[in-house]
Design goal:
With about 425 residues, the chain is α+β, with helices and mostly antiparallel strands. Helix content is about 35%, strand content about 15%.
Length: about 425
């Protein structure tokens, strides 16, 4: 039987050269590995909690219908901060009197494998319902942008999944299959529309997946209404564990019944538990998160409530967001130039004189996925003049993050012990 050994060597190049010249295979301190299915790691790992973690249900097994987020391959053309600007751009793109070379130069568009500018323009001219392509996209956390979502100009539309987000009221879990960056795991989010593939992270290994909660029948299908995108075996397992009857839509009363949205909120709460994230950090790096189930009805009810609050905050729907905790006291051009944080005064400057005041270091440094939210939202608007709605929205983000930090601690306080029972 072959054996596999591992050794690490850290430090500067000169030190590594010295150690390598002074040692050989026989004198190296090796650690014997026992790689096993399904990942066969060739590095030492703490596998002590793996049996406990794997009792949970993998997200991809809970929500069978899912896919990665959309890939436009031309974000600057199909998306904008302003609906009118986007509409004018697409209208000009369709205009037959404007030659292809003018459109190419004006919008920086070029033919590529599988996509032709002239064919795309003609396809839009032939589509009588082309204006139905205008909708919104969750581009980054709390960053909702107008998009022209049409197969003629979107490289990978993922319509087999996104149609369920556009057909009616819905929400979806967003997460990644792997974590490539160091630090605490936070690759989790919620959406009520389509998402861009880098919504939570722009790292290649951290491409984002969308898991709709509800599925809507396609045009021509005889089904009436929506139904939950939940594995029947998962529903059966959780129903038996909780001793509650499952209802097909909405929420239950949590005394005799529970519904899809109760499950969603419960999961969202568990995935925001700081202890969950640190306890299972080794496994969250390598595959979709797993959801532990509880048989404790009161715990389920309490976590469902906290998860519901988080969902409402992250979808920018919570009434709490109307109670702003920051100030924007200086009148000026409102143009984003250089984003800078002053920790002593708890201010975020957008230019030399204007700032948001009352932002704690914890909120300023808070990450969702691969993004430092407070910084990212402003940096993406560098050179732009913030409108009144923009200024208000940014201050709502601050409230949402402050509340998220509070709720995460409260979620941990509700869970009596690990593993969740």
């Amino acid at each position: 039987m072959p054996k596999i050994y591992h050794a690490d060597l850290w430090g500067l190049r000169e030190g590594k050269y010295r150690v390598l010249s002074e040692t050989d295979i026989a004198s190296t301190e090796w650690t014997e590995l026992e790689p096993h299915s399904p990942f066969y790691f060739f590095v030492p790992r703490n596998e002590e909690l793996r049996p406990e973690y794997e009792k949970g249900w993998k997200v991809a097994d809970i929500f069978p219908v899912n896919s990665v987020g959309i890939v436009t391959s031309r974000d600057q053309f199909v998306m904008d901060f302003d609906k009118t600007s986007l509409n004018n751009r697409i209208t000009a793109f369709r205009e037959a009197l404007l030659p292809d070379d003018m459109i190419q130069d004006r919008y920086g568009l070029r033919d590529k494998d599988g996509w032709s500018l002239s064919h795309a323009r003609e396809a839009l001219r032939q589509d009588k319902d082309w204006q139905k392509g205008f909708t919104e996209c969750l581009y980054r956390p709390f960053d909702i942008r107008p998009i022209f979502y049409h197969d003629a100009v979107i490289e990978r539309s993922r319509r087999e999944v996104t149609r369920h987000m556009l057909a009616g009221e819905n929400m979806g879990l967003v997460c990644c299959r792997q974590q490539s960056q160091s630090g605490h795991w936070s690759l989790i989010g919620v959406a009520n529309g389509i998402i861009e593939c880098c919504y939570l992270s722009n790292k290649t290994r951290e491409i984002n997946y969308l898991f709709p909660l509800y599925l809507y029948p396609a045009e021509g299908e005889f089904e009436k209404g929506r139904h939950p995108n939940l594995n029947p075996a998962f529903i059966k397992s959780f129903s038996e564990k909780l001793g509650l009857k499952f209802v097909e839509d909405g929420k239950g009363n949590l005394e005799e019944t529970f519904g899809p949205e109760d499950i969603f909120n419960y999961a969202y709460a568990v995935f925001h538990s700081p202890t969950y994230r640190t306890r299972y950090a080794e496994f969250l790096k390598i595959d979709f998160p797993r959801l532990p189930l509880t048989s404790n009805k009161e715990l389920f009810k309490a976590l469902e409530a906290k998860g519901g609050e988080l969902v409402s905050l992250h979808l920018v729907e919570s009434p709490k967001l109307n109670s702003l905790i920051t100030k924007y006291p200086i009148v000026g051009p409102n143009q984003v130039e250089t984003v800078r944080y002053d920790e002593a005064d708890q201010r975020v400057y957008i230019n030399k004189s204007q700032y948001f005041e009352g932002i704690s270091p914890e909120v300023w440094n808070f990450h969702i996925g691969g993004y430092q939210v407070c910084q990212k939202w402003l940096k993406d608007r560098k050179g732009r003049t913030l409108s009144y709605d923009d200024l208000t929205h940014y201050q709502k983000i601050i409230v949402a993050l402050e509340e998220t930090i509070r709720l995460m601690q409260e979620i941990d306080g509700l869970i009596p012990g690990w593993p969740i029972e």
